[in-house]
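Next up, a specimen:

>
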Amino acid sequence: MKILIISNWGIHDMMGGTGKYHTLLINLLYKKYEIDEYGVSYSADVKSDKSNVIIRSPSDNLWYEKLNSLIKNNNYAFIISSVFGKNSTKIDYFNNKVIYIQHLNTKFLFFMSILKLCPLFDKQIKYAVAYDIHNKKNLSLLFKKHWFSVALPYEGDLVTKSPNPSKVIVSCGRLYAKQKNVNFLLKMSKYANFEIWLYGPSSVKQKEKYKNVKSFGAYNHSQLDEIYSKPIASILVSKFEGFGFCLVESLQHSTPIIVRHTFSAAKYLTNENKNGLLLNRFLTPYLAAKKINKWLEKVDYQTVSNNCLNFAKNNLSLQQFEKSWENIIDFVLNDK
């Protein structure tokens, strides 16, 4: 049984949570199916000599024409796609069954619809997957598909924290990206009764003096246990996100999360503030800092830390991810 996986997010680039999601899904599917992969790479180092992995430059003007030719000349059992953007609605699936993965948050869909950038308007797509139950609910009101939700999982073991953390809050990820909104953290630090430790490439230099801020630069996966061993919480104040993989890693390490409500998964992952603190998206840095200060004074840390661990175990495991996708594929293959 042969299938096709399409992505223009950066195939095999491992760029953030989206890259992680696709890599885990591809690893699962290779166990059962013959696969063709068709995508782009934003890294010159990503190449493949495998005939079933077609990687093209994002500047390739014939990307969609070549893709349509590939689909036309093969008989796929089903196609998994997460393509969006310019001309993405020009893909001809030639009556193949298509499962679409919606990575972006619903707030972008209005603008995408005006610009005709959203493939969910494509009537060829009958099945769709959202990251979380809130996004699934919102999307199902807009687009009449068979909707499923499968969260981005953690890899490795769950980690129990020390009951006596430092009064430190960490922010991890691609902090150089404007999306991550590091300037919000820097402004917030002026009013914070806690330290903010930044992990990841960013424009913040240690020589620059910000109250309560330390920047440690790039890190790798092997350092996560150490990074999350000391702080009382992690924080994500992005302007937008798909799911926020750093939050998954934080919950995996039983570290409470503080999140601006700028994407639907923020509500899902904070779980009615049982796993940390959900910040109103309209709070200024000053008001956000004050709210966090107050939360730190009152939080029952051990209870919240245990909640994080249990939430990750019950909702974000790799086994659940794989089982959910197996169930989706079974449904699609048997649906007439």
